[in-house]
Amino acid sequence: MKIRLLAIAIIVAFGMARLPIEQRITEEHRAAFFHGAQLNLGLRQQLGQMGFLAALSGFRAVVADVLWIEAHNAWERTEWGTMKLLFDTVTALQPRCMMFWDMASWHMAWNASVAALNDKTQPREALRLKAQREYIEVGEDILLRGIQNNPDKGFLYEKLGALYDQKMHDPCKAALYYEKAATFPDSFPYVKRIAAFRLAECPGHEREAYDKLVALYKMGKTERVPTLFTKLHELEEKLSVPPQQRIYSPKIP
Amino acid sequence: MNATKHITFSPARIAAIASNTLLELVRLKVFYFMLIFALLLIGSSAFMVRFTFQQQFQVLKDVSLGAMSIFTWLLATLSTAMLLPKDIEDRTLYTILAKPVPRLEYLLGKLLGVLAMLAIALVFMSALFLVVLYWREQIVLAETARTTAPEELDAALREVRGLTFNINLLPGIGFIYLKAAVVAAMTLLLSTFASSWIFTVIVSVMMYVIGHVQPIAREYWLGAIPGGTVASPVLKILLGLIAVVFPDFQLFNLVDDIVVGNAVSAVMFMKTAGLGFGYVFIYTLVGYLMFANKEL
Amino acid sequence: MPDPAISIHNVTKTYPIPFRKEIVVAVKNLSLDVEPGQVYGLLGPNGSGKSTTMKIVLGLVRPTSGKTEIFGRSSTEVESREDVGFLPENPYFYKFLTGEETIQFYGKICGLSGAKLRERTKELLALVGLENAAKRRIGGYSKGMLQRIGLAQALVQEPRLLVLDEPTAGVDPAGSREIRDLILDFKKRGLTVLLCSHLLSQVQEICDRIGILHEGVLVREGRLDELISIQNQTELILENASPELLAVIAREASAGGARLVEQRKPQTTLEQYFLDVTGGRK
């Protein structure tokens, strides 16, 4: 009996001692973007008992992949509503997976929105446009939530920039997010160029955009793409830059 | 005069029991699990061809590491649960403890045998996983080289490589092992006082599952959840008990986030591993106390 | 004066019954000594406390009160088991090991290694007659072979004391005879043997002293020949005695105040008869 009591005492003492240590380590993990998945009752309803248990027991990546495959199948059947629900679950399970956020927003903002616009079962164009807009906004929301979960990665900023650029035709917001993406060390070189190009299209930011384009020009041959010169020319005209200060010249390749 | 001189603490005795335990577990055909794992790996890889290569690599890594996790957990639970009961039932335990073998060394030998088996299993599964990952990577790299414009080739190949092997996968596999080691030590402790191996397995599985919600109980107990106060004192005590008694297995569930790009610093690894070793040490210590007192 | 091989002082062992106030008394106030070089038979019906006593001597179970010693060292000390080899009842060894590997395993946990261990293994396999089965897995061994490998593992560290629990249980007569002969050989080498057996005829053949336990109490203890001899009777065995001579002996006995209780032909044992008919071990 004494030994059993001693054993229980050791377990309890160890338990009490490790609680603050575990909490500290968990917080350090969270600061490094681990344990971001929200395993709550909402998820339990979506996953069912076994799925939730599996997700809880350390197999959430596999559960997410299974649901992802289901979402892919739903896409093949153009079941956009089902896809949206599955994407929400998948991203809740794997909030640090860029691909899930990216593909989810792409399906909504590009595929679903175009399908809504071309929906032959909806005769009223206004409603089709509204549905299109709503799907694009769903895609936007997905990326914004993705960025909230992944503020340390530039990838989703770039994708959000592309969404504002290509789907919402908002060069100012596009420029903002492209610019943000460009600050990350792993961003592609073209991202800062596109940021400057979109800024050039944003009313009230011509001078700022021009300075950025000049800085890009000065970086050398790799940045001197045809669009750079086109944008430089447009801004030099808009800003009435004195000829001797102009960079753009039709003769310069 | 007898042939041997008594040594108070003998690593050689522990090693003899450990290697015997390892041999026992391996000869139990537990490595046929490896075959199922291999088929799972390659099967999942072939199944995914209709997806993009990003998705294929994602699923390959998730399924492989998930399989490693589940198999090491199963191996740790089932093989450890039957060690003591089998020796008691067969009376082999009596023949061993009737020799000058302290009970601590017997227990340590058994645990180390299981840990060795888990390590071998994981090394094998990891090697297989990395080989398949490399194989798929080479196929995708060749395809990419064939279809990508020369000026974008470098970036494209870099993107493919970035999606396959990531050095952080190695500490991720280390965490899988650590989790299984904690499960093994916990199961061994349970078997020192359990009435049957089935009871040990059931309680171990229950503790494994509850161990994954322990962090929630702990955070409520410590008041670490903003706005998350517990009104009922009975509920608070219950949460405190769960937090104190059950291990936190979520601490070792890092590989899911590692696969999607999270990095593990050396300091983070050492701290988490340190806590894991702490669990193994305490469970072994308590298991020894129970076993030392056990009427055989 | 050398220490007794086994010394049991006022040992009592009780087990509580869960959820009840009563206790089970397995051994009650037991005291006995086994001198070095003796073969001591511990007898008793099932549940009399023999196994519990053995386990207490081996340090596998702690007594509720009292103490036991092996060659002067307390049984609770691990070192005391350097001097002991134990063969439990119906042992199962690790089925996946061969006979040779089994002995080597036990040798290693006793601290033996290398060439010394290999030599000792060969020696023991020869002693118990299992050289031809050395490379076969224990899972394929017969009952008799298991008992013999059990004896071999018990002897691996050259102990001074052997504790054997039903060493011939379930073994065929030839095998049983071989094990009995081994025990007698151990005795000749000066080993002390504590033997528990239900085969009383065998105990009678090999033990010097016996103790009889009944419901945890030692009811009889002493030299075997003293305990079982019928004190007031004498046995004469005559060869080629004629009926007239037998009549004379009977008359003289009567005249001397004795009574001729029985006159019959002596019998061999069924075991010996069986062995003679079957030719013993092949």
Question: Can you characterise this structure?
Answer:
The complex is a heterotrimer of chains A (253), B (296) and C (282). Chain A has 253 residues and is mainly alpha-helical. Chain A has ten helices and no strands. Chain A is 74% helix and 0% strand. The mean pLDDT of chain A is 90. With 282 residues, chain C is of the alpha/beta class. Chain C has helices spanning 50-57, 99-109, 114-127, 143-155, 173-188, 200-206, 224-228, 243-255, 270-278; strands at residues 6-16, 23-34, 39-43, 65-70, 73-74, 84-87, 161-165, 192-196, 209-214, 217-223. The N and C termini of chain C lie far apart (45 Å).
Provide a compact summary of the structure.
Chain A has 253 residues and is mainly alpha-helical.
What would the keywords be for this entry?
heterotrimer; B: 296 residues; mainly alpha; 12 helices; globular; C: 282 residues; alpha/beta; six-stranded mixed beta sheet; four-stranded antiparallel beta sheet; 10 strands
Topology summary:
The complex is a heterotrimer of chains A (253), B (296) and C (282).
Chain A: H1 2-31, H2 41-76, H3 80-93, H4 98-117, H5 125-149, H6 155-166, H7 171-182, H8 190-200, H9 206-219, H10 226-238
Helix pairs in contact in A: 2-3, 3-4, 4-5, 4-6, 5-6, 6-7, 7-8, 8-9, 9-10
Chain B: H1 11-30, H2 32-47, H3 53-89, H4 92-97, H5 103-147, H6 150-163, H7 169-191, H8 197-211, H9 214-222, H10 233-245, H11 255-259, H12 266-292
Helix pairs in contact in B: 1-5, 2-3, 2-5, 3-5, 3-7, 3-8, 5-6, 5-7, 5-12, 7-8, 7-12, 9-10
Chain C: E1 6-16, E2 23-34, E3 39-43, H1 50-57, E4 65-70, E5 73-74, E6 84-87, H2 99-109, H3 114-127, H4 143-155, E7 161-165, H5 173-188, E8 192-196, H6 200-206, E9 209-214, E10 217-223, H7 224-228, H8 243-255, H9 270-278
Parallel strand pairs in C: 3-8, 3-9, 6-7, 7-8
Antiparallel strand pairs in C: 1-2, 1-4, 4-5, 9-10
Q: Which value, in Å, is the CA radius of gyration of chain C? A: 22 Å
Biggest sheet strand order of chain C reads 6-7-8-3-9-10
Count of individual beta strands of chain A: 0
Name the overall outline of chain A: flat
Question: Which chains make the largest contact?
Answer: A-B, 47 and 56 residues
Helix content of chain C: 25-40%
Biggest β-sheet description of chain A: none
What class would the helix/strand composition of chain A place it in?
mainly alpha
Low-confidence stretches of chain A: none
User: Count the strands of chain C?
Assistant: 10
Helical content band of chain A: over 70%
| Tally of alpha and pi helices of chain A | 10
Multimeric state: heterotrimer
